[in-house]
Amino acid sequence: MSQAAAQATKKNAGKKWTLIIGAVVVLMGAAGAATQFLVRPAAADDPTAEMQARKRTRVYVPLEQFTVNLADEGGERFAQVGITLEVLDERTDKAIKAHMPAIRNSVLLLLSSKQTGELLTLEGKKQLAEQIARKAGGELGWTEPPEGAAAQRANPVAAVHFSHFIVQ
């Protein structure tokens, strides 16, 4: 190979490497910009963004199954209920585990005060879920605001989910 051909080959190889390095830098910049756009923190004054962030960090805490006699006349009816609490964060999960005996007691007393007719309807189950959330939140120190007043802070128990619900 002549000296001129060798220099031309070296020059082309140098251009290829420059082009490859330039392409890598551009791709890394685009990836960084995309990451910044997708993961950027929400505005502090945007309540919608705060609520969406809270929904992403929710934790589900299953309670042991409850089997209770219902308050029907004769006392022959019972309910078997599986409950999972949806809480706002890991800290609340730990608090629930620390207060589990009190929470289970409150839920047990609430369930055993119900009659069969209350638990068989969809509306009755929804009402029971709301009552359990209030009871469990109360055991964690949350207080329900008086009617018409704004809540000082949200109930740490965001929702109650039933994993099974049997009434006999």
List the helices and strands and how they pair.
Blueprint: H1 3-39, H2 47-56, E1 59-62, E2 66-69, E3 78-87, H3 90-98, H4 100-112, H5 116-120, H6 122-139, E4 157-167
Antiparallel strand pairs: 1-3, 2-3, 3-4
Helix pairs in contact: 4-6
Summarize the entry for a quick read:
Helix content is 55%, strand content 17%. It has 168 residues and is an alpha+beta fold.
Terminus-to-terminus distance: 95 Å
Order of helices and strands: HHEEEHHHHE
Gross morphology is elongated
Question: How many domains make up the 3D coordinates?
Answer: 2
Helix content: 40-55%
- CATH T-level topology of the largest domain: Tetrahydropterin Synthase, Chain A
Instruction: Write down the overall mean pLDDT.
Output: 83
Describe this protein's structure.
It is built from six helices and four strands; from the N terminus they run H-H-E-E-E-H-H-H-H-E. The protein is α+β, with helices and mostly antiparallel strands and 168 residues long. It has two domains: 3-40; 52-167, Tetrahydropterin Synthase, Chain A. Strands 1, 2, 3 and 4 form a four-stranded antiparallel beta sheet that branches. Helix 4 runs antiparallel to helix 6.
